[in-house]
Amino acid sequence: MGAKTKQALLLLVAVLLGVIFIVPVIWMVTISLKSDVEAFLPSLSFIPNEPTLINYTDALKGGALDVPILRWINNSLLVSVVGTVLVLAVDALAAYGLARLDVPFKKLLVPLFLSTLMIPGIIWFVPQYVLFQDLGLIGTYHAFYLPFTGSAFGVFLLYQFFRGFPKELEEAAYIDGANKWRIFQSVLLPSSKSILSTLAVLTFMGIFNDYIWPFYASGGDDRMQTLTSGIAVMTQGSYVNAPNKLMALSTIAAIPVLIVFLLAQKSIVRGITQSGIK
To answer: CA dist 239 to 45, 64, 245, 249, Å?
Structure first.
């Protein structure tokens, strides 16, 4: 098999995968632009006969459920931003300590962090919920972002990067009179912008799209729901027989994550492929 044939096959596979992923998105947007009558027609059509934005205006107003959609959007953005900042701060410090400092029990801590990556997150759900309930945090914003404060994946990602950082640069900083904190702040962090950007985007997307934990952490208060968990609330009322309005709400929920990904996609690629420092 020639090189051109292999390239053509790879391109074909990429196109097929792209179609598989993009068709559900197109279908979601298509249904969101259909009227109530057209949304229930048995025919399969990717182009609405009479496109309308009424579903978006109804979704943002909350419909007959009178639910605070705009409050849910604000909750999602607030929790995602605060959680992302906490993850970057905590994980960067933890990874730096494990990679470059003489931390006690380092040989035990590193495999311990890695072992937590093998455990499905749902296993932590009940103990975590009971803990937050005992602390009186259920139904508060603290319950939304505190579980994401430490990320084993983020620690491991940054740990691998910091381990490969040239020691010569640190030694030069020591000679210039810099302490460990100064080296971390002024040498390592500026050199790890790509990997930090990658972790920030992945964390933001994960928190924003999370559904199960916010749904229960809200404590049954509709005003404390995030957008993704709020969609489930919408399906329990007047929107259960209105797929076009549900798809409009789902499209609104996908827009912030899509914008963040498109703006940071180059940083993600650099962060994933980066294996050294120029």
So the answer is: 22, 8, 7, 10
